[in-house]
Amino acid sequence: MRKSAWLLGGAVATGLAAAILSGFSSRLEPQGPAAPAANGPAANAPAAYVIAAGDSASFKGPRQPIFFRHDIHAGQYQITCQYCHYSVAYSSEPGIPSMQTCMGCHLIVAGSDSANQKEIGKLREAWNAKKPVEWVRVHYVARHVHFPHQRHVKGMGPAACATCHGDVARMPQVWKVNNVNNMGWCINCHLERKINRDCTACHY
């Protein structure tokens, strides 16, 4: 009888330990689609999922020369859009982050897993070769349209980015959520917010 009780108790203890360890490891390497970022400090943000560049073939949006994870940078670490796209509040164009901006972190940060380390290695190689990374543009408007980013950011605040570009903090690979090159989409936004929709507002 005592032997049975010991065996049963041991089995229960082993099962509990396994459940605790599996829960812990699943928090370290979550699987599935990216979870939303929390509004608190970065320590409270959910970890981004482990994805290698080769796993991104089925993702929406163009493949980039380096698999840059917005869900890690903007989501997990909660880096604001304006830190990298620093000209957005002062210029018509948001600008592509300079290599200096990327290497400001990645001279030290090498990546937490082999997939990240491989992509960061590509960035460092480009930096050492003094060759800027040729990113594939995702969002664009027609040449005859003027979209002054600084006015939109000033008028709508930090949430302005997600209004047009979607929740990039949940995107492992950025894709075009809204057709920003569609005039009707822009006009509807101006109508909702009671903003000037005269032709000369965008075509000048």
State the order of secondary-structure elements, H for helix, E for strand. HHHHHHHH
Percent of residues in helices comes to 40-55%
Q: Which structural class best describes the helix and strand composition?
A: mainly alpha
Radius of gyration: 23 Å
Report the end-to-end length measured between terminal Cα atoms: 90 Å
Average predicted local confidence, pLDDT: 80
Overall 3D shape: elongated
Uncertain segments of ≥5 residues (pLDDT<50)? 5-43
Total number of β-strand segments?
Answer: 0
Task: Please explain how this structure is put together.
This protein is 42% helix and 0% strand. By secondary structure, it is an all-alpha fold. The chain has a domain at 22-139 and 164-178. The longest helix is centred in the first third of the chain and has 27 residues, at 2-28.
Looking at this protein, list some descriptive labels.
204 residues; mainly alpha; single chain; elongated
Quick summary of this structure?
The protein is mainly alpha-helical.
Topology of this protein?
Blueprint: H1 2-28, H2 70-76, H3 81-84, H4 99-106, H5 114-128, H6 149-156, H7 160-165, H8 183-192
Helix pairs in contact: 4-5
